[in-house]
Amino acid sequence: MSDIDVASSAGAEGTEHIDEAAVAALTAPVPETIGDGGPELVQLLTPEGERVDHPDYSAYVADLDADDLRGFYRDLVLVRRVDAEATALQRQGELGIWASLLGQEAAQVGSGRALRPQDYAFPTYREHGVAWCRGVNPLNLLGLFRGVNHGGWDPDEKNFHLYTIVIGAQTLHATGYAMGIQRDGAVGTGDADRDAAVVAYFGDGATSQGDVNEAFVYAAVNNAPVVFFCQNNQWAISEPNDRQTRIPLYQRARGFGFPGVRVDGNDVLAVYAVTKAAMDAARSGQGPMLIEAFTYRMGAHTTSDDPTKYRVSAEVEVWKHRDPIARLKAYLTAHAMADTEFFDAVDREADELAATVREGCLSMPDPEPLSMFDHIYVEKHPVVEAERAEFAAYHASFEGGH
Amino acid sequence: MSTLTIAKGINNGLRRSMERDDKVILMGEDIGKLGGVFRVTDGLQKDFGEDRVIDTPLAESGIIGTAVGLALRGYRPVCEMQFDGFVYPAFDQIVSQVAKMRARSLGAVKLPIVIRIPVGGGIGAVEHHSESNEAYFAHTAGLRVVACANPEDAYWMIQQAIETDDPVVFYEPKRRYWDKGEVDEDGAPRLGLYDARVAREGEHVTLATYGPMVRVALEAAQAAAEEGKSIEVVDLRSLSPLDMDTLAASVEKTGRLVVTHEASTFLGMGAEVAAEITQRCFYHLEAPVLRVGGYNLPYPPSKLEEDFLPDLDRVLDGVDRALAY
Ligand SMILES: Cc1ncc(C[n+]2csc(CCOP(=O)(O)OP(=O)(O)O)c2C)c(N)n1
After folding, report:
1. Same fold, B2-183 and B197-323
2. I want to staple B289 with a disulfide (CB 3.0 to 4.6 A). Which of A243, B124, B215, B274 is the partner?
3. Which Pfam family name is an example for this entry (chain B) (predicted)?
């Protein structure tokens, strides 16, 4: 067949079947940065703090009582306060760098609180709120940023893995861990204390990585009990969503063969409900799911970054009105579930926690120089042993000489 | 003559190359509006547009893989890896594809790709931001690997690397980005891209190094001179191929060689240099070739990096050991 034949026949057929709307949808510009998440966004609490219902997800928060909601509020305030203190500590030279979670508290607390003790979380480097929900001491997080260790906590203690800085790598670890849970028969037994699932955190930028796409493939074909939790905070350092994707991120899941959902990441109730639903499904053997928490990074990418070089302050203003803490406070107040006394008490607790964190950070000892030779291998390694001895001798000669 | 930092030297060099040849395009994460996390590409997107200074998706394998395609189509991509520790997702593309395509095509294709990597430690960063991974790439046939150490080399070497028709891994010493020096921007490069340089003349010991350690070596030579020891410093500049003639000439003069680098010594660049010099200069050597490098450890947390990285004292200690023979 000649080129001309191909072109003309394709053209003739094509015109009949073209679905204009579908083409328009595919070629439309990506949702702009200041989007509101679009009509698919799952929301249970509006930015004004009004409770709204959702046909699929309201059920998952139906049994939350006022105590639970106050608990959510407390978590949100405490993690924001720890974050602010860490930022201050960085400014004062006590931390080398800090990746702030400001604005993402609801995405983290909502999802973190939806986990059971036997579930396992694989974070990136910004999941301070999830760590809090897992019971990880905030000081553990500070060690990495202060430069005294590379993480240094035992992940199995709280089923919260070490922070991962190489973008997207942990999504594969999470998937493999989930495959292990599956092989251990801890999925779909109906025993609430036994069935487990994994949650993997990552950012919008991470969705471009090969590792993340490979994790989606592995999770899908193995029907692994893993929930992919993407915090779409709109920016990957200086790059907005449209440098990573042309479709809303949650829609990617479909192409891999599992469901995706977009939730208002600044609505702690909705995030809790959606994550709980996804984790329940994964634990019961229904396989992976992608959650896109639509949120915003209110601060800089890290303390080394200068967002004024690439984004406008009007955008930040828009998102201020969607603040996760303010909206829950409004809801609690309007329904007389909390009063000034409660809010004041939480603020006091936050200040105390911040003071503890500060003190702990300042009194964190520098590591012993020789400790860098520890924990490299499980078994004795002659090269490491030789270098340790060489280093020790060198150091000793030095101290003696001076 | 202008006074430039290393970062600005590379920036001006990139600009010159882009002006000279519109096939030169830059690719990387955050290199556009932000100008890169080290601001090395500052202002280039504004002047050359988004088609030539491309903010890529956050995917390193994608950056190098698409650069291969662009190069096959006649472009000259200059790819930025944001940090040394983030080149590994692109490792397969670099060592399996970039390095081998010319040989596979029996010379039919060329891949004029430059892979810029800010390298090394000493900036107080968290993990994966301080790696010295030059040996992986130098070990891979089909790639050329170079390391600049001062503003003049930064300015000229980046232009020479872009002009080269072979793929070049181009290391930038990140803890020296803000070091200043004189650059004759309108003159001509004093050296070829693959030449080593005698950075300081001396008689008793040759100290060979490259990249961020060049400054340490020069400071060591200065300190040693005050004690009457004369050190010749050779900046290797090109790690693959190695300019052995320049180095051998120096060792034949001094009779002693100490090689120093930030990377772990085990199977590092120093091992290759030591082996080669021992073969070539055996009868000139008064002492075994010694290495002063990082330990064979994952790069430690930043509070320990001063103990990990060879500093002035450790380099001088190596020099003294060489002189003691
Ligand atoms: C493989 C890799 N490439 C580059 C980087 C440098 N880097 C650190 S964070 C970041 C942006 C991440 O954006 P996103 O995934 O959206 O997560 P966010 O930080 O916004 O939560 C980049 C490019 C890295 N850490 N790892």
Report:
1. yes
2. B274
3. Transketolase_C
